[in-house]
Amino acid sequence: MLRSTALIFLPLPLLLACGDKDEDEDGGEVDDTGGAVEYESGCITVDGGGGYAWLTDALSVASEGSTIEMCAADAHEEAVVIDKSVTLVGPGSDALTLVAPTAEHTITITGSSVTVSGLSIESTLSGIVVDGAANVALSDITVEAAGQWGIKSTDSLDLSVTEVVLSTNGYGGLGVDGGTATISNSELVGNTGYGVYTTGGAAVNIDSNTITDTLPADEDNPSDGHGIYADDGAAVSTTGNTLSNNFYMNLFADDGDATMSGDVLEGGFYGAVVFNGEASFSDLDITGAYWVGMWASSTDLITAENITTSVVSEEAGFLDFDAWGVDSLGGTGIILTSTDVVASNIDISGYNNTGMLVQGDGGGNATLTDITIDDVGLHGMAIETIDADIENLTVTNLKDLDDVDETNDCYYINYINAVYAVQANVDWLGGQVSDGEGWGVVNLDGTMTVEGVDFANHECSSFIGFQSASVLTGNTFSGPADAPVVNSYYESSIVISDNTFADSQATEPVVYEYDYETYTYTITYTDYAQTIDIFAYTTGNAVISGNTFSNGDQGIVIYGSDAEITSNTWDSYRSTPLQVQLYDDGTSVTTPSVSISDVTISNWGGDGLGCYGANVEMEDVTFESGTTYSYDYEYEYVYDTGDVYTGGYTSTNAGAAIFGNGCSMVLDGVEVKGHEGQAFWTYSYNYDGTYELDDVSITDVGSGDSSYYSAIYSYGYYNESTIYMNDVVVDGAQTGNGIHLNPSNGTYYESAVNLEATNLQVSNADQAGIYIQGATASFSGVTVENTGTYGLYANRSTVDITDSSTISDAGSIGLYVSDSVATVDSLTVDGSSSYGVWWTTDDDYDEDDYSVAEGDCDDTDSTRYPGADESYEGSTTAGVDNDCDGTANDGTDTTDDDGDGYSEADGDCDDTERNIYPGSPERSWRVDNDCDGIVTLGGEDDLSFTNSTVSDAGEGGVYLNGASPVFTGNTISGSSQSLACEDVSFDDCYSNTVDGVNECDASCTEDP
């Protein structure tokens, strides 16, 4: 090859092409004598002149500010150092490839104000190294398959990288260590380690680039594979980039700051992650990030706005319940951890563990606005140890992806919840929480105010507060749930005001199959899920006011909690709108105190109010139009013979408007009207009860087809109920009695019912106005009128009637007294269809030939009487005092057989009945309960009927049988047989005025 030379002062024509430098040829160095230097000629120009084969030669002759132009070549092998301000221009990255010798960087830039453009670069080390320079501009450059970095900058200022392609480089695309840099409109594809790497406090702007397919150095144990990486105080600012399928993280700032705006992030294990630095995210579209969409953890402000992050849930990461939050936070859309968080216009979908997690470091504040989370698992929004102001949060379609037994889904409150707040103080306005397979909102050990949120269709509660304080106001709750819609648990307080609860009824089919020897029996019916709207469980206090409830199953259940319930309305409840119950875990008892006022309950099917062992005060409460609840049953018999029989039936029942079991209740201004069941029902199974009714009105109740639908009904087993009535009106007991008192007075179940009534009015009862069986009752100023059978019926009871009481227009007998202790004074009985007064007693009730007066210690059992056989051979019942001598059987037994704490040896006179023992209350009629040998109740009949008027009875005025009453000062008239007696003797008969037939004259002593 001919060699042409060029003097630096004499430009020569350019070569048509550049070639590789021949190391054996004269290098054109300046000789020691100071003569001219010769350069190998080629197509490289400096400021349009000369012709150099080598960049090194061109650079040596170039001045500050010169422009060096290179010509096209498939490959030009040379490594250069640019240490002055020059512009290096190639023919285009597709027309020239600059190849560095082995183990050398291709271009090293140490000078400032350098521009390089229009070439491709290959190197076994780094393509371009910028070291300590300033104002370096790189554009239209391709660096592919470099052994280290495509471009590496160290401590350089204002590096500009534009329209470059950095591909499949060994360490990464662009590395910036210290200084400042901008990369824009570039492509970084398939690099190993990092797309863009920043460290050493560098500040890098990354604008409108495509950064894709970054791979980890070790795929089996990846620690890199990041699209953009910042650490050691570096700060990156990204705008309008597309970061796609970078293996580990599309962006990772570890101890570095990140500001992202308008970027698109696709795929990768993580979308964007910032640890221990400032983080600002806006207008990001993050899709397909397998493990976490976006994660920022810092002590500085974190802002996120206009963010969409989504993943196909079948492709998203998933951890089981025990691992989540302990080993990892995988499968989460957005995680923000700081004492200062601002997030708005966030849209998250598809993540399998949590949509969004916001955490403080034991404090701080988060402002969350317009957040939408859909189709996520375990948690929708989780808020931990931070104060949060939320506006318009929507969480929908929460999924249960774990393998926990479905029956326990609602057992763990931190498992499957749309919104989970722990040790957080939350103010929340507006939004929606709906269609979740687990819990709606959980407030654990924090405070929360929720207003204007729509809750619907959660398998567990829509809201639960646990050891927390909650305020719910102006929200809507709808749709069925397996657990109560709103829960308040364990030492919590809750205020629930001005909310709407609707459509919580749910049904489920129930099938029972029984296999017998010759046939199979199957019964099928539709059961109700017993959804509760509000459940306060051992809550410190619940305030529930101004709410509207409709089309539900159970309304409010208060369990071991104090509560104020006011100004609520219920309509169309299948079961019980209100229930109050004490808490008893076997070691301690918590009796709640509940006040209920200004409440209206209508169209319910079970009990309107159910009370169990609690203290309840009711004022200005209305129950109206109560109905029945029913079950439709279908059955099938399949016999071994092949015969099949099918059929069905309907079971229909109606509860009470007010039900009390062992409660202390005060009713003031309560009205019950148009109810198919009982208006008021007391029961004493476990606890004594006290009930005060003042200014209570009951009209047109008991329309169901059962005699048990008496308007007021009191019954019990073991304990005592005491009822006080003042100004109570019972009008229209359409089935059954107006008032029915019926404690159990058997030999095993023993209870007592006591009634004190003042100014009581009972009218238009289908059966008896007042029916008393084995109870104690006193009436002052009572009025009973227009009854189907008796006006007042008393059997085996103690009854006092005083103060101008009246009984009129009874369907049969006005006053019926049988085997009772009764005192009647100033009573008017008028217009009875049969007798005005029927008074009878049987001295020998069990017909064993001994009365109580004659020593019968149990006049309800014909095998027990003085002298009965009590030998072990002849005794009817072992352990029983058959012969009424005070000792159970002849001989004693030290075993307490009935569990009442006393054996025969301890003086138990009936060791088969737990309500009979020394010191027991005397509750049983004609039975010696306390084993003192005396039957206190039902002994010699104490009967008194004085100063009363009986008139216009259809058959007879007064009938007395087997009694020796005080019977004075009475007026009897208007009946064909005004006074009739049988086995009766009494004094002062002539003090009575009898107008009509008097068949008791013979037994009266003479008038003194």
Describe this entry's structure for a reader.
The chain is an all-beta fold. The chain contains one helix and 87 strands. The chain has a 81-stranded mixed sheet that branches. Strands 45-46-59-60 form a four-stranded antiparallel sheet, with no helix packed on it. A two-stranded antiparallel sheet has the order 54-55. The radius of gyration is 48 Å and the shape is rod-shaped. The relative contact order is 0.03. Mean pLDDT is 87; it is low at 1-33.
Provide a short characterization of the protein structure:
By secondary structure, this protein is mainly beta. It has a 81-stranded mixed sheet that branches.
Helices and strands in order:
Layout: E1 41-46, E2 49-52, H1 55-61, E3 66-69, E4 73-77, E5 80-82, E6 86-89, E7 96-99, E8 107-109, E9 115-122, E10 128-131, E11 137-144, E12 149-162, E13 165-167, E14 172-184, E15 187-189, E16 194-199, E17 203-207, E18 210-212, E19 226-231, E20 235-239, E21 242-244, E22 249-254, E23 257-261, E24 264-266, E25 270-275, E26 279-287, E27 292-297, E28 302-310, E29 332-337, E30 340-349, E31 354-359, E32 365-374, E33 379-384, E34 387-396, E35 417-422, E36 425-436, E37 439-444, E38 447-458, E39 463-466, E40 469-473, E41 476-478, E42 486-489, E43 493-497, E44 500-502, E45 507-515, E46 519-528, E47 532-537, E48 541-545, E49 548-552, E50 554-559, E51 562-566, E52 569-573, E53 578-581, E54 583-584, E55 589-590, E56 593-604, E57 609-612, E58 615-624, E59 629-639, E60 644-653, E61 658-661, E62 664-673, E63 680-684, E64 689-701, E65 712-716, E66 720-733, E67 739-743, E68 752-758, E69 761-765, E70 770-773, E71 776-780, E72 783-787, E73 792-795, E74 798-802, E75 805-810, E76 815-818, E77 821-825, E78 827-830, E79 835-840, ...
Parallel strand pairs: 3-6, 4-7, 5-8, 6-9, 7-9, 8-10, 9-11, 10-12, 11-12, 11-13, 12-14, 13-15, 14-16, 14-17, 15-18, 16-19, 17-20, 18-21, 19-22, 20-23, 21-24, 22-25, 23-26, 24-26, 25-27, 26-28, 27-29, 28-30, 29-31, 30-32, 31-33, 32-34, 33-35, 34-36, 35-37, 36-38, 37-39, 38-40, 38-41, 39-42, ...
Antiparallel strand pairs: 1-2, 1-3, 45-46, 46-59, 54-55, 59-60
